[in-house]
Amino acid sequence: MVLFVPQTAHADFPRLRVIPESELRFGEFAVMDRGYRIVGPTGTVQSVGIFSTTNSGTGPARFKVSYDRGNNSRRRLDLKIELRFSATPMQTQGGLVTRLTQYQTDLPGYSTVSAGQAIEITIPNCVQRACETTFNLGGRLDVERDSGGGTVALGIPVDAVLISVK
User: Fold this and answer.
1) Global pTM exceeds 0.90
2) What is the pLDDT of residues 60-74, one digit of tens each?
3) Biggest alpha carbon–alpha carbon distance for the chain
4) Which of 21, 42, 60, 117 could anchor a disulfide with 138, C-beta 3.0 to 4.6 Å?
5) Which residues, including other chains, have CB under 8 Å from residue 119's CB and lie 6 or more apart?
6) CA-to-CA distance for 24 and 157, rounded, in angstroms?
7) Is the pLDDT of residue 52 over 60?
8) Spatial distance between the Cα atoms of 137 and 22, rounded to a whole number of angstroms
9) What percent of the chain has pLDDT over 90?
10) What is the pLDDT of residue 23?
11) Is 97 in contact with 36 (CB distance < 8 Å)?
């Protein structure tokens, strides 16, 4: 006797992810004692008290927000997602003290963003298994130097919460 037991189909759990595609880059520069550099979400650069040593190496961070519904349904979904950028800690290294402030985005309605501020984005008309959107993030790097120099690498923590699926 052969007994056949059909497997029940199951879907993966829905998953929301924020994927950093590129880091916020302030380039190579020199600073006498203090200054700041702003890299905008479009890549514009403004410096005060900072002198560029090259004309390259700057650019905004780029993030991808991806929602995987966990199955292959083609039902239309309109997604509302809340993002929050955490403050980056002040860093001290090799005679430099740096702080990242004044986030800027290319998201409609959120040209400037404070650390901890809630930002709502939407991904409308999602009909594939996975849907996504991308955005750029710029910011201001304040630098104080008392000696030496070094490389500054600042990760930008981002939290994302799915707040509605319609």
Assistant:
1) no
2) 999 999 999 999 888
3) 86
4) 60
5) 82, 83, 84, 85, 105, 107, 110, 113
6) 12
7) yes
8) 10
9) 70
10) 92
11) no
In three-state secondary structure terms, 17 is strand
First to last CA, the chain: 48
Sign (positive or negative) of CA dihedral 59, 85, 114, 32: negative
- DSSP code at position 108: T
* Tokens matching residue 154: 């600042």
Pairing of strands 45-52, 91-93: unpaired
Tokens 């403004």, residue located: 46
- CA-to-CA distance for 74 and 128, rounded, in angstroms? 6
* Beta strands 61-68; 58-59: pairing state: unpaired
Please choose, from the candidates 67, 45, 39, the residue with its C-alpha nearest in 3D space to the C-alpha of residue 137: 39
Distances in whole angstroms, Cα of residue 89 to Cα of each of 86, 147, 148: 9, 20, 21
In Å, what is the CA distance from 85 to each residue of 59, 146, 157? 18, 29, 6
Q: What is the pLDDT of residues 115-136, one digit of tens each?
A: 999 999 999 999 999 999 999 9
Please report, as a single letter, which amino acid is at residue 42. T
The DSSP annotation for 60-94 comes to -EEEEEEEE-SS-----EEEEEEEEEPPPPPEEET
